[in-house]
Amino acid sequence: MNHVRVGPRENSRTHPRARARICLTAVLLAALAAVLVPAVREEGYFADPARLTWWYAAAWALFGAAARSLRRVPGRYVVPLVLAGAVACCAAGLAGPPLTSTDSFRYAWDGRVQAAGISPYDHAPADPALRALREDWLFPRGGAACAGPDRVGIEPGVCTRINRPTVHTVYPPVAEGWFGLVHVLSPTGVRHKGLQTGGALLALAVTGALLLVQRRRGAELRTVAYWAWCPAVAVEAVNNAHVDVLAVLLSVAALGAVVRRRPLGGALFGLAVAAKLLPAVLLPGALAGVRRWRDAAALLAPAAAVTGLAYLPYVLVSRGSVFGYLGGYAQEEGYEDPGAGGRYALLRLVLPDSWSVPAVAVGMLAVVAYVWRRGDPGRPWSAALLVTGTAFLLMTPGYSWYALLLIALVALDGRAEWLGVALAGAAAYVSVRAFGGATVPVAYGLAGAAVPVGWWLRRRAAARDSRGVRPGPPSHALRSRQPMWNESP
Fold it and tell me: How far apart are CA 434 and CA 443, in angstroms?
């Protein structure tokens, strides 16, 4: 069954106006890919973050224009365009080495350590006990090689590209398994390219999973472009090779499975949490509308069991804690001390710093209670988007790759106004270096304001359509184009 329904003008011969729309979308996608190439090669994160910000702004503008143009493309051309755009954007992300993050260097190191039969949780990268494993590309030597702003000295004449080299790894076991797999499969001397290629394959797999979930439920396939073409995916999932994309793939699979097979969905949630802890925020959404404790246990028990089983091998072979630097990371990023960084930026505009953490707790409990009472168990991604987006707006994280999970939820649910939160994350990470600390509350404030505006515009459009004021396509075509807009919790 073809779930991209076609309009009355679609037939074996494409209408000239439809051809023009297809061509316009293709041109916009080509322009987007062309802009992404310098955006991931621009050496501006340290030297000229304002210039890099403008590249990002251009990419996001083209992304928005292409996604809007896709709305008017005939149905049978949607999937080919979505896939072509996904491949083009991923290819653009491979155009240069990791630009704005050094996390992938830690991934490469952890993979190498595991290949040597050593637990990645037992030693920090700077530990002299692992000198024999050091490679020159990860541990440069000499004054000139160590002069870059992204290099950290660890010994006289020796530095590393790995951030926080004196602390143990923070990544969960499924992520560590991914690092080890990439190391084993990568040819000798490939350096960062193995992880970037793996990130591109995972990003494309997410696109495929989104298309599959949407097609199976008879939903709009155009919204998958919100993930496939998003500049954040090319930059963070591919160029910076963040392991978050693996967690996103597992999360999409979990949300797709949980509606009909709750235990399977729970097991996939467990894998997602064991890849990156952030997907735990999806669990309240997955429990939306669930009233019986047995139904809740059918989800939570497999999730907890799989997460525990994933940790077990590392617990058995590691001498140190398998949670590594997690506690220190939370403190360093200002989640424990609101006055120490840019976290809770919107709350701190109206509340004393000391009230921020309690306010987040109250706000999140209120949203979780709302989705539990009012959420649709047949649409867990809608509730998950509301919970996740609210968490981002309350906590205002400073790392743009965290929003990869939110972008995938937008692709499932269709509420594009939440993409502003992902854009705010990029501003909080890159633009703040050029324009100062006020960038964070301004960016997240605008993103938060876009959410009720988007809700109001959809309600107004739905009211007009129900009164028959605006002429348009038949009702079945309208439902196929906007099936999720009037169903959000």
Answer: 14
